[in-house]
Amino acid sequence: MTQPTTQSGSGLVPTVGQTVGPFFHDALPWPGDRHLVAPGDAGAVRLAGRVLDGEGAPVPDALVELWQAGADGRPATAPGSLRRDGHTFTGFGRCATDEEGWWSFTTLPPVTPRGGAVAYVSLAVFARGLLDRLLTRAYLPGTPVDGTSGDGVLDGVAADRRATLVMAADDPGYRFDVRLQGEGETVFLCWPRDPRAGGR
Amino acid sequence: MTGTSPACSQAQIDDEIASLALDSTAGEDRDPAGLRGATRLDYAPYRSTVLRHPTKALHPADPEGLEMWSPVFSHRDVAAVESDLTIHPQGEPIGERIRVTGRVLDGDGRPVRGQLVEVWQANAGGRYIHQRDQHPAPLDPHFTGMGRCLTDEAGHYSFTTIKPGPYPWRNHLNAWRPAHIHFSLFGTEFVQRIVTQMYFPGDPLLPLDPIYQGIADRGDRDRLVASYAHDLSEPEFLMGYRWDIVLTGAHRTPAEET
C-alpha cells in the first residue's frame, strides 16, 4: 500500500499534500524563525503582509515561509536556519500569522537571483482550511507590470493580475498581502513535473 | 462554518463526499477535470476551505529561478534526540509506542539526502498540547508530540513516538479526525516543498473524513496510509510502521552547480 507507485512515463507518483491544520504552532515555528538577519542590523529590511480570505478577513492560523537568494544573487547554501548564529544568511525563514493575519520577516533587501532579470523572493503559504500548500513570488516595488520586466513568470501572468505579485514599499521595507481568494486573488504558481499543474 | 448549518450531520457530509467523488465507473484513464495527482483545494465538505481556496488556476512557471534550489539544513539545525518523541526527562508518555520510518524520494526515485523532516501529532488520547485544542481528553505531561530529523544518505527518516488517538473537531456534528501524524518535508528544490498527513491502516474514520477525502484519487489517498511492518517491530518494545514519501519531480540534475 505504501510502496512508491510508478506512473506511466515519468517516474514515481508524488505523495499528495494535506492541510497544515490548526495545531502546528508548537512544532513548526522556532525562536528566531522570522529573523533571517538580526532586527536592527544595518541594511535589514522588513518584509511583511497579511494573509486574507475570500471575504478579506484575516487568516490568523496561516504559516508563511520565505526563500530568498543571498546578497550575491546565488541561492543560499548555508545550513543553520533553525539555530541562527546571527551572522550566516540561510535564505530561509518561517512566520505564523498573528490574530490579524500579519506575518513579518526581518531580512536582506531582495536581489535579482543569478540568471534572473528582476529581484524577487519566493513564498510558501500554509493554513488551516487550505488543503495543500501554495507557492508564489513577491517582486520588488516598481517591477514593470506591463509585460516588459524580462521575468518569464511575471510577464506570463495575465496583465490584470501581475500587480498581485509586486510588493509595496513600506518603510523600513516592503508589504505583500496574500489574498487566497476573491478580488485581487494572489497568483499562485506551479512548475512542470508537478501534478498540481493539472492531473497526471 | 460557512454555507451550511453547524448542525450538519455526518450523513450529510457523507452525501457531499459521495457526490464529489471521481466517477468510479469512468475507468482509470479518465480524469477530465485533472483531479488525480493532487489534493483538491476547493472541497466544501471541509468547511474551512470555502473562503480559503484560490478560484483561479495555478500559473504554470518555467523550470528556472530561485525555486529550483532549496534551503539547506544540517545537524547544526537538528539534534539526533529530536527524532525520539518518547524521550522526556520526567517520564514515559502513555500509549502505544511505535516507530515510523521510510524513505523520502524525488520523482525519479532518487533519495533526498540530509533534508529536514518535521512531525507533530496528538497524544494517545487524541489531545494536542496546543492551547487552542479544547478536546476534553487528558494532556500527557510526558509528551509534546513534536519531532524533527534529517534524512540519511539513502533518504531514510525515522521517528520513535506514540500512536496518536483520533480526535473530535467542529467541521460538522460528531466529526472525528482519523489518527494521523503531520509531516513537513523539503526536497532539493523549493517547488518540492510539502506538508501532508500520514494515516494508519484500517482506520474506520478514513471514509468519513473530509480532509482525507479531499484527495480525489483512491491511489493518492492510499499512499498516505502507512503499512504495519512487523520487521520493524521490536520484541517487547514497539510496533513498526513504514511510510515512504515521494516528492514531485526535480528539475536540476544532482551534479548541477549553484
Automatic annotation (TrEMBL), chain A:
Enzyme class: oxidoreductase
EC number(s) per entry: 1.13.11.3
Superkingdom per UniProt: Bacteria
InterPro entries registered for this protein in UniProt: Intradiol_dOase_C, Intradiol_dOase_core, Intradiol_RC_Dioxygenase, Protocat_dOase_a
Keywords assigned by UniProt, alphabetized: Dioxygenase, Oxidoreductase
Intradiol ring-cleavage dioxygenases domain boundaries: 45-111
Keyword Nucleotide-binding annotated: no
Pfam family membership, one: Dioxygenase_C
Regions annotated as coiled coil: none
Molecular function terms, GO-annotated: ferric iron binding; protocatechuate 3,4-dioxygenase activity
Family named by the database record: Belongs to the intradiol ring-cleavage dioxygenase family.
Name of protein: Protocatechuate 3,4-dioxygenase subunit alpha
Automatic annotation (TrEMBL), chain B:
Organism annotation: Nocardioides acrostichi
Protein's name in the database: Protocatechuate 3,4-dioxygenase subunit beta
Cross-referenced PROSITE patterns: INTRADIOL_DIOXYGENAS (PS00083)
Keywords of the record: Dioxygenase, Oxidoreductase
InterPro entries per the UniProt record, alphabetical: Intradiol_dOase_C, Intradiol_dOase_core, Intradiol_RC_Dioxygenase, PCDO_beta_N, Protocat_dOase_b
Keyword Oxidoreductase carried by entry: yes
Sections of the chain in a coiled coil: none
Enzyme Commission number, as recorded: 1.13.11.3
Enzyme class: oxidoreductase
Gene3D superfamilies listed in its UniProt record: Aromatic compound dioxygenase
GO biological process, alphabetically ordered: 3,4-dihydroxybenzoate catabolic process
Any GO molecular function: protocatechuate 3,4-dioxygenase activity
Stretches assigned to the Intradiol ring-cleavage dioxygenases domain: 100-128
Xref: NCBIfam families: protocat_beta
Sequence similarity: Belongs to the intradiol ring-cleavage dioxygenase family.
Lineage, top ranks: Bacteria, Bacillati, Actinomycetota, Actinomycetes, Propionibacteriales
